[in-house]
Amino acid sequence: MGLKDLKSKSDQALASIGSARPAEARPVRPTTAPGATAFMQPTIDALNQRAKAAEAIAQDYKAQLERQPVELALDLLIEVPHRRRRLTPEQFDELKGNLANNPLIHPVTVQRTAEGRFEILSGHNRAEAYRALGRATIPVVILELDEADVERSAFYANLLQPSLPDFEKYLGFRQERERSGHTQKRIAKDAGISESVVSMLFAFDQLPEAALQWIERRPDAIGMSCAAEMAKLCRAGRAEQVIEAIELLVEGQLSQKEAVRQAGRQASLPRTREAAASGPVRVRVGRLEFCQYQSRGTSLRIEFRSEEQRIEAEAAIAATLQALAEQARNASGR
């Protein structure tokens, strides 16, 4: 091999050395304590995040276990009257009959008191039914709530019950408004219902206090639509007529439609004596209408509110007419 060939091979070797890929750089672990700490910090952070996630899962499982129903003595339960959803005797008997033959699907929710007893948040009627059945204990779920959230939670627990009267829904929303200061829009959003429904429920706000006192005796007697119509009549200056109509409605003398018509009926002043005689005359006992009669020429027509009232009055009317006939005969000398 000549010098020329050696030089060529040498040049190729040198070129290959310059183009060779460098070995991948490997991190060098520091030997000092601060350096080692900085080197391990990413690993430490990752482990801390995993520990926090595991702790959150454990706390969630613990909370779920704490919310599991437990059997509690009925004697330890404290009832709060205004939280109890009102049931008719028929509805309560139906509930009692159901619980007599079936397990309690929805446990009573309670809040622990400082005295070691338990205040019912939701389930007053279920607890009362268990007492009526002679049971000693009932399944409950124990909640730990702030005092400010207790009433709110109790109300919303009953809100979606189909048998909850509109008036009681209104009372709950009114209490929530007074507690929170929220607008109707915000209250509707929190409750998950339309703002128009909340607005109609607050029509009860515009009824006279005397009317509200009558409704409290029988909350299921009037719905929010009827209340809205009555509120319009109150704004039109017919508050007294609204109170009278609601009284008759609560007493079962009128339907909701009839009550609205009666409250809105204008008393007409007869133009002539003949017109006054031809109009219907209502016979009342207090605000309760017994019957009405109307005369025309030689006819007298009487309308009673029920057939039972007509039957009771018929004998008395017959006796009165017979007495008048006797008087007429005596007067004529026959």
TrEMBL record:
SUPFAM superfamilies for this protein: KorB DNA-binding domain-like, ParB/Sulfiredoxin
GO-annotated cellular components: chromosome
ParB-like N-terminal domain location: 70-159
Ranges annotated as biased composition (Basic and acidic residues): 1-10
Entry-linked Gene3D superfamilies: 1.10.10.2830, 3.90.1530.30
Superkingdom of origin: Bacteria
GO biological process, one term: chromosome segregation
Region (Disordered): 1-35
Protein name per the record: ParB family chromosome partitioning protein
Organism, scientific name: Sphaerotilus hippei
